[in-house]
UniProtKB/TrEMBL annotation:
It comes from Microbacterium allomyrinae. InterPro entries: AB_hydrolase_fold, AXE1_dom, CE7. The active site is at S187, D273, H302. Substrate binds at Y92. It comes from the Bacteria. This is Acetylxylan esterase. GO terms for molecular function: carboxylic ester hydrolase activity. SUPFAM superfamilies: alpha/beta-Hydrolases. Residues 1-318 form the Acetyl xylan esterase domain. GO terms for biological process: polysaccharide metabolic process.
Length: 321
């Protein structure tokens, strides 16, 4: 795939007008306050694994509407507390997988909380275990149009709330220093991380890798790749619903979330990425008000930097914690 988006020099200055509802902050303030009303402590159970250099715990915490959300906590073996922590969110269709699926952060001396994504976990990887018990109206296949008639019932309202509650849960765990928590994720996980950083005060860092869920109105009309094409398919059937759909999506747009994040940021973007086009990533990155960096992979698609990006994240984070 050749480069298809704006030149890098233009991307670095890309600052489009983004639809933003007047009650954005009130909507999210009420949503998170309601979720925090379910104040049950996370349940944490150590699990047996073949790994001798890490300890793994099965964590269940209350998410949106108090629904139980699963996560794996992985820490260096024998760790007793005060560790810096990474909360990680999953790519589209994936789940938390098996205990020990992701060992890099624990091997680097961090506590790593890997959150399941409700209703997902059956498209790739090793599976997920968190159901989404809330219904929705008519939708195209996938997750992007579930409940899209109304922001209150939209699927990602529940997911973003779970993400904030994962940060809350991490801060309450005995192995973790509550003042040294960061968030990360790739693709969908990157978009969720941006939302978590916007809606959780005092994070050390946010590290969105080739993030999804940014500048919806450009993405939907710009790329012919899924998952954004789910919205196209929905609108091709629900003719004339554009205004309602994009109004709902504006409450969840990473570009609107990014401007509210106070954590230091390390983004990544791939200039041949048709899944999350570069201009949609820069639309969020350029709005981020705190100290920030972006890794640019000039000849990569949606795979981005992979291990190179993890190494960049570890080096970025080390002096901050």
């Amino acid at each position: 795939m050749p480069r298809f988006d704006l030149p890098l020099t233009e991307l670095q200055q890309f600052s489009p007008d983004i639809r933003e509802p007047a009650d954005f902050d009130a909507f999210w303030g009420a949503t998170i306050a309601e979720a925090r009303g379910w104040d049950a402590a996370p349940r944490i159970v150590r699990v047996d694994t073949p790994f001798t250099l890490v300890d793994v715990f099965d964590v269940t915490f209350p998410g949106f509407a108090g629904d139980p959300v699963k996560a794996w906590l992985t820490v260096p073996a024998g760790a007793t507390g005060s560790l810096p922590a990474i909360v990680e969110y999953q790519g589209y269709g994936g789940g938390r997988g098996l205990p020990g699926d992701r060992l890099g952060w624990a091997a680097a001396g961090y506590a790593h909380l890997s959150m399941d994504t409700r209703g997902q976990g059956s498209m790739w990887g090793s599976g997920g275990e968190t159901p989404d018990p809330h219904g929705a109206g008519p939708a195209a296949s996938g997750f992007l149009t579930r409940g899209i008639d109304d922001p209150a019932g939209y699927y990602y309202r529940r997911v973003f709330t779970d993400a904030v509650r994962a940060v809350d849960a991490a801060r309450s765990l005995p192995q973790i220093d509550a003042d040294r928590v960061s968030v990360t994720g790739t693709s969908q996980g990157g978009g969720i991380a941006i939302a978590a950083a916007a809606l959780s005060a005092g994070l050390v860092a946010v590290m969105p890798d080739v993030p999804f869920l940014c500048h919806f109105e450009r993405a939907v009309g710009f790329t012919d790749a899924d998952p954004y094409q789910e919205v196209v398919r929905y609108l091709s059937v629900h003719r004339g619903a554009d205004e309602r759909v994009f109004e709902t999506l504006s409450y969840f747009d990473g570009a609107n979330m990014a401007k509210r994040a106070d954590a230091a940021a390390l983004y990544s973007v791939a200039l041949m990425d048709t899944v999350c086009p570069p201009s949609t990533v820069f639309a969020a990155y350029n709005r981020h008000p705190a100290a920030k960096q972006i890794e640019v992979y000039t000849h990569n698609g949606h795979e981005g930097g992979q291990a190179y990006q993890w190494d960049a994240q570890a080096r970025f984070l080390a002096p901050l914690v």
